[in-house]
Specification:
The chain is mainly alpha-helical. It is built from four helices and no strands. The relative contact order is 0.15.
Amino acid sequence: MTDSHSTPSTPAVLRTVREALGSLAARVYLAGCAVLLVWAVVVSQADQPDASFAGVVPVFATAPASLILLVLPDHLSMVFVAVGLGALVNAVLIGWCARALRRGRTGSGPTG
């Protein structure tokens, strides 16, 4: 019998990513990153002396994967690519850790 969420033709990597992104912690992290990115765009449009530093916040929130920005071409859209990629990688790791912790907790009761 196969799982209702996966088919035999689904690659294991995609199945793992889908399961990791199903975690509440991963979804909250992705939502937070999206809010930070929107905030950075809005604040950077303002006429304030430190508005140009607003873009640093979402990059740091999605580090280390978002640091790929350092090698991407110099274009505004590359910031969105780097932050999106960094958020996705980190969310998968958060979901994987949450799932591993849940799995470990179910069988960790005292024996004897």
